[in-house]
Design brief:
470 residues, alpha/beta, six-stranded mixed sheet, four-stranded antiparallel sheet
């Protein structure tokens, strides 16, 4: 392979650059990675032809976080297949213990970039209670869907079943839900999510309220890192939790008798964003070429993960000890789409769907807007997150400059520019109506009237209950 033109970097130069980066960051890398993050570049990555010369980038050596859930697939693929190196980046991956450390690592400068829960970027801009305040930015989503609500066996035995078996009957679900929680001691009425300001928190509240249950009166919401979800349920400290795969499937297939999947997040809001690729605003300002390379590498990785012919390979990659460390039978359902809801009556509840996790191309039922794809960020979705933060008292009122904040937080215009350089077209608008049929309560979201939407909810809170650390 020839590397004589100015747009390529020799392997010798690359390895030399890696050595310099390793020497400069050896102390922090050892402390953070704890020998769990991947350490050695694959042969395939070393041999890939570079489109970008690292010498042309402001900061080619980056430390990027990831959390050991299925969400890490694009990061694992970008590492293993050489997409980071293709765009001139020498990346050190940092395995993060939780979504809080993933977010805070960016804010406090330990990480250059990392995935975060989608509400973290929006709420960082609005100053919502429970969120870390900082000028966070994101230009792309990592994926949509890929998460679920898990309930314990006691809830099954009390008569609760997966949502699809209720056939859209929120009233009956609400009766079953209230009947179960009403018999519990107050200290046992606990639901776990991964982080305050996560869409998972809003989904738990949204679901309860749609069923006629005031969440702040019926149960507490605590923060639990993903790998600790199953053990917390096993010892009885939580009745249910919402998290990304494989930690829902693990309660079914990896720890038989622990719990069952009540619903995937896509059954609450079909098409919802999940994780974003976050950086500080200053990183984009100071390293515009580097940032473009990073987004391109991640777009390419997301497209690779989204191609069905790669799903088995992606499952194998993320099952590696460096990433989820879970057996392929646990990571596979969320990637391939053969999703098992579990249960304790011996019945098969496997449902196959290409929309189980969406990394790039939408399934046909969601491909309704020309040139739309999963990594494109709709600023209207940032507004939806603001309505939920306001609904539950994390914002005292809906921000008067909401559209300005959404524009700063979700860098849609910049994404269009970067993706167009890759030959990828994107929608021309920043806002879209989220159709009623996409929500569990059949309530559409029109971004032109967020306050009207917010006021249409009968159940809401003036102030949220305190968050309890587990």
């Amino acid at each position: 392979m020839s590397h004589t033109n100015k747009n390529n970097w020799t392997r010798r130069e690359f390895i030399k650059g890696m050595g310099i980066a390793a020497a400069s960051s050896s102390i922090s890398s050892c402390a953070i990675n704890a020998n769990r993050a991947p350490q050695n570049i694959s042969q395939q990555a070393l041999e890939i032809e570079q489109l970008v010369n690292p010498k042309t980038l402001e900061k080619p050596n980056l430390t990027i976080g990831y959390v050991p859930v299925n969400d890490c697939a694009p990061f694992a693929v970008a590492w293993e297949k050489g997409f980071f190196r293709k765009y001139g980046l020498n990346v050190t991956l940092s395995r993060e213990a939780s979504w809080g450390t993933s977010r805070d690592g960016i804010i406090f400068g330990r990480l250059d970039a990392s995935p975060v829960v989608c509400g973290a970027v929006t709420n960082a801009r609005t100053g919502a209670e429970g969120a870390r305040h900082a000028p966070l930015c994101a230009a792309m989503t990592i994926h949509r869907h890929g998460n679920a609500l898990t309930m314990n066996r006691a809830m099954w035995e009390a008569g609760l079943r997966p949502w699809n078996e209720y056939n859209g009957d929120l009233e009956t679900f609400g009766r079953d839900f209230r009947g179960y929680f009403g018999k519990l001691r107050p200290e046992n009425r606990v639901w776990a999510v991964v982080l305050s300001s996560a869409i998972y928190e809003y989904f738990v509240r949204y679901l309860a309220a749609a069923a006629g249950v005031a969440p702040d009166e019926e149960f507490r919401i605590i923060i639990v890192p993903p790998p600790q979800m199953v053990v917390n349920m096993r010892i009885g400290s939580t009745q249910g939790y919402m998290v990304a795969e494989p930690w829902n499937t693990r309660a079914i297939s990896g720890n038989e008798g622990i719990g069952f999947t009540f619903a995937q997040g896509r059954e609450i809001w079909q098409g919802h964003p999940d994780r974003l690729l976050a950086v500080m605003e200053s990183f984009i300002d100071e390293n515009p070429k580097t940032y473009r390379s990073l987004v391109k590498a991640m777009i390419e990785a997301c497209r690779y993960c989204g191609d069905s012919k790669n799903h088995e390979e992606v499952t194998k990659i993320i099952s590696n000890r460096s990433f989820t460390g879970a057996k392929p039978k646990l990571t596979r359902p969320g990637i391939v789409g053969d999703y098992n809801y579990g249960g304790f009556d011996g019945k098969s509840r496997v449902i196959s769907s290409p929309g189980t996790t969406i990394f790039f191309d939408y399934p046909s039922n969601l491909a309704t807007i020309e040139n739309d794809h999963s990594t494109f960020m709709w600023q209207s979705e940032s507004l939806w997150l603001m309505t939920q933060a306001t609904r539950w008292g994390q914002n005292k009122e809906f921000p008067k400059n909401a559209e300005e904040l959404a524009k700063k937080a979700w860098q849609t215009k910049l994404y269009r520019e970067i993706s167009s350089e890759m030959g990828i077209k994107s929608p021309s608008d920043d806002y879209k109506v989220a159709a009623a049929d996409n929500f569990i309560d059949k309530k559409a979201f029109d971004p032109s009237d967020p306050i009207g939407y917010l006021n249409s909810f009968e159940i809401r809170a003036n102030r949220p209950k305190s968050f309890f650390m587990s």
